[in-house]
Amino acid sequence: MNSDHVEAVVFDLDGVITDTAHYHYLAWGKIAEELDIPFDPSVNENLKGVSRQESLRVILDHGGKEDKFSKSEMEKLASQKNEYYKEMIQELTPEDVLPGIMELITEIKNENIPLGVASASKNAPTVLRALEMDHLFEYCADASRMKRSKPDPEIFLTVCEALEARPEHSIGIEDARVGIEAIKKAGMYAVGVGKNLEEADLTWESTEHLSWTSIKNSFLTKNSMARRG
Ligand code: G6P
Ligand code: MG
User: Fold this and answer.
1) Does residue 12 have an active-site annotation?
2) How far are the Cα atoms of 18, 89, 124, 177 from residue 127, in angstroms, in the given order?
3) Which of 14, 39, 98, 156 to mutate to test the pocket of ligand 1 (most atoms within 8 A of CB)?
4) Looking at residue 188, what DSSP letter applies?
5) Which helix or strand (DSSP H or E) is residue 8 part of?
């Protein structure tokens, strides 16, 4: 196989393909309010890319209430958050795909490069269907089958394997710090969307500025430099 070739592009979902990161924030905000825990965007930054149960632990920790709830109470809280979230995402339509994403995906597909989704969300298939995008991805990881959360590379490695792509020849796109860390640990090329993502190989402030030509050229330059040592 030609090594000057992108073998797969793997997208995070929430905050990259659509702004569901905001709905996760609102749904957790309701739970935090019910528990009388202060909650703001800075706490939310630590929840991006983090699983439902782990997010709850972060919020309880933040409110100094980490020991106040039994396992079953915590399960109830997490499932209540999911009910709020599911109600919010019922309104999703193809109009909610973030600017620039469809154009980027079209350009990648024109080169016959397989696409995957590596989201920690168990709601990912529902969200992709609501956006009418499920047919665009060759593979979407099943979050419930992952043993380890981002920043562990497991989910990105699983998607690369399913797409028969070598991680060092694949690109991951993320909005979360833990997500960028997971991509790098997988040995892939990391594209960050948003702020505070210094670990990424390339970052953009927002999705509308994403350019496939720039991503590809930067990836190819890095790979050819790595080959030359
Ligand atoms: C993504 C989001 C997180 C969310 C997680 C689990 O990684 O960035 O904010 O907590 O998915 O989502 P779920 O829909 O399964 O609760
Ligand atoms: Mg995300």
Assistant:
1) yes
2) 9, 7, 5, 22
3) 14
4) -
5) strand 8-11
Read off the pLDDT band of 18 (50, 70, 90): very high
pTM for the model stands at: 0.95
Beta bridge partners of 115: 9
Sign of CA dihedral 53, 58, 62, 67: positive
How many Å lie between the centroid of ligand 1 and the Cα of residue 215? 26
- What tens digit of pLDDT does each residue of 52-106 get? 999 999 999 999 999 999 999 999 999 999 999 999 999 999 999 999 999 999 9
DSSP letters along 25-47, please?
HHHHHHHHHHTT----HHHHHTT
Side-chain-side CA neighbours of residue 105 (13 Å): 20
Query: Which of 30, 34, 33, 74 minimizes the C-alpha distance to 56?
Result: 74
Q: Residues 104-140: pLDDT tens digits?
A: 999 999 999 999 999 999 999 999 999 999 999 999 9
Active-site residue, from 14, 36, 61, 67: 14
Q: Is the CB of 177 under 6 A from ligand 1?
A: no
**Residue 94 neighbours by CB under 8 Å, 6+ apart:** 131, 132, 133
Of 53, 55, 51, 61, the C-alpha closest to 29 is: 55
Burial of 19 by CB count in 10 Å (0-12 exposed, 13-18 middle, 19+ buried)? middle
Ligand 1 pocket, residue 184 CB under 6 Å: no
Q: What is the mean pLDDT of the chain?
A: 95
Between the CA of 52 and the centroid of ligand 1 the distance, in Å, is 6
* Short-list 208, 174, 192, CA closest to 48: 174
